[in-house]
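Q: I have 341 residues here and want to know how they pack in 3D. Can you give me a structure?
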Amino acid sequence: MTTYRSVMATRHGQADVLQVVENDLRPPEAGEVRIKVLAASVSGPDVAHRTGDTLYTGTPMAKNKPPFVPGYSIIGDVDAVGTDVENVAVGDRVGVLTIVGGYSEYLYWSSNWLIPVPESVDPVDAVTLILNYIVAYQALHRTAKVKAGEIMLIVGASGGIGTALLQLGQLADLKMYGLASERKHRVLCDYGAIPIDYHAQHFAEVLRQAEPDGIDIVMDGMSRMAIIRNGLSLLRHGGRVVSFGDPRHLLVLLQMLMTMVTVNLLPNNKSFKLYGTSRYVLGDKQPFLNDWTTLFGMLESGKIKPVITDVLPILEAAEANRLLESGCVTGNVVLAAPELL
């Protein structure tokens, strides 16, 4: 093989801007590895990068100035290594938090930014841990520092991060409420959560009646100020709102930061915190590597089982994006190499 294929966003726009392109298959450079991609996640940030509907469009953090290959995370096998690579060998299974670049048959990446992955886990399941489960796990245990018996509301409970929060929250012995459309309530009930239909019910009113003493945690994946303010109003003493969504506009981010400063200075011991994977990108790798190891162990032991709506071939990324945007997905959509289908 002298070439490989990727799915490139030729411009910002709808899913049809994603086009299959051919690339030269070259040897890896010094300090670099070449990875045969086995599975790639399809996530909300992928869609935001593709459409340009993100605050970070065109920045070094997003790296989504067209043309570019989307794809926030992958798992694959090291196919070749460059010179000066000592910590990984051909045949090793690894994960990468790419931010962009994952919709591809092969990926070139720095050997210093690889995530060890056990060969015993299914790559299709495991790739959801690289982004969605690490966000859920760290938001719960590192940011909110949850305790057994606490009461949590999950905003966006039926999505990839939401279903991860449901599973991890159940394991942490939390009482859970979740916002989701009625047709997706079954998955919330499967993990012991009490569903709230955001189309037909006002979640704050429902929770004030159900939990008159207040709740402890709000996990917000929407980054909308109305939801954040209502969530803060539901907290009891010591309660926490954790927002992990990507604010779409600078004004929203500024409002969130002002709210965070104000809430965290008040004497009622409530807090509002923002979570993001930027700490990993900026070099604080070890907490992430520790938590990925924990999550892979939970997957191996059967404690967690990712909810996956569909698995499509890697080169059908455009169709996978359409599916994710349709609103019909519960949990995750994953792209996979032909040998895994």
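Q: Anything worth noting?
A: The chain is about 30% helix and 25% strand. The chain has two domains: 3-128+307-340, 148-275.
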